[in-house]
Amino acid sequence: MTELLVLQVRAKAGIDEVRQALTDPKALNLWLGEHSNVDLPGTFEFWGRYIPEGDAPHQRVVGYDGSTLTLAWTLGGEETTTEITLTPEADDATVIKLSQTHFDFADAMSGANIRGVLQTFWSLALANLVDHLEGRELTTRPDFTSPVFEGEVLIDAPIEQVYSSLTESEKASAWFGFPIEIDLRKGGRFAMGGFDAGPGVEIVDLVEGRKMATDWGPAGISSWELAESDGKTRLTFVMSGFDEANPPYGAWTGWLSGVAALRRYVELPDWSIWAS
């Protein structure tokens, strides 16, 4: 059953600056798609390898009034509706609300339909939009044309702080925005939703202070490794061992949006972008 997905973030930027980032093709190409074509109120298109089914633009404008943009987006054989609304909170703060129809959590778990990536895709896109507006480095975007899942990011925090944020249940739950329990040992368990929700997945490799790998079954092996870099921490990450005919793009975009949140969590005192 499909549902309405609603995501809401706060950017430390005025509404005019946010509107510019949303409607300027050069800015869109940085935080959203590889290519874009914008001529509002008539045209708003984005496509390329960073967009699901991005072989060509599949969006058309339904409405635009300067504060709310409504798009019809054909995805997975269905016409969905995407709506983005900007609301000023102060001269230097704007709430960005995104709603997306036709999201199915079952598709997110199974990969049966590309619409299953919508929650994690938009979470990452909004995180990158906020970082773009606040002058921060953006997080790696997914390539929906490739089955190669690997990337790296430089985090402005000591390696010990990053490691504890990745491996301590309370800290991981905070930045990921979902309960996580971790039995931190080789052969231990990593459980999304906590151990009461199920046994979780197995930790198949662990080097204390440096790296961890978990076995997600059909979704493959997810692994990360840390290295010190002039007082900062280089985080490299890989997903491997999955069915390349059906890549787990939803899981990959979920990990990337998590990396964006992790970076803010360890780098900024006022780190969360999410607005209620």
Describe the structure.
With 276 residues, this protein is an alpha+beta fold. It has two domains: 3-133, START domain (Alpha-D-Glucose-1,6-Bisphosphate, Chain A, domain 4); 149-243, 2-Layer Sandwich (Alpha-D-Glucose-1,6-Bisphosphate, Chain A, domain 4). Helix content is 27%, strand content 37%. It contains seven helices and 14 strands. It has helices at residues 15-23, 25-31, 105-110, 118-133, 159-167, 169-176, 249-267; strands at residues 3-11, 35-39, 43-47, 59-64, 68-75, 78-90, 93-103, 149-155, 180-182, 189-192, 201-207, 211-215, 221-229, 232-240. The strands form three sheets. Strands 8-14-13-12-11-10-9 form a seven-stranded antiparallel sheet. A five-stranded antiparallel sheet has the order 1-7-6-5-4. The protein is globular. Belongs to the AHA1 family.
Query: How many angstroms separate the termini?
Result: 25 Å
Runs in which pLDDT lies below 50 for 5 or more consecutive residues are none
* Largest sheet, strands/sense/barrel: 7 strands, antiparallel
- CATH topology of the largest domain: the name is Alpha-D-Glucose-1,6-Bisphosphate, Chain A, domain 4
| Content of β-strand | 35-45%
CATH superfamily of the largest domain: START domain
Return the string of H and E elements. EHHEEEEEEHHEHHEEEEEEH
- Count every beta strand, where a strand is a DSSP E run of 2 or more residues: 14
Topology:
Elements: E1 3-11, H1 15-23, H2 25-31, E2 35-39, E3 43-47, E4 59-64, E5 68-75, E6 78-90, E7 93-103, H3 105-110, H4 118-133, E8 149-155, H5 159-167, H6 169-176, E9 180-182, E10 189-192, E11 201-207, E12 211-215, E13 221-229, E14 232-240, H7 249-267
Helix pairs in contact: 1-2, 4-7, 5-6, 6-7
InterPro entries: ASHA1/2-like_C (IPR013538), START-like_dom_sf (IPR023393)
Family: Belongs to the AHA1 family.
Domain Activator of Hsp90 ATPase homologue 1/2-like C-terminal: 156-267
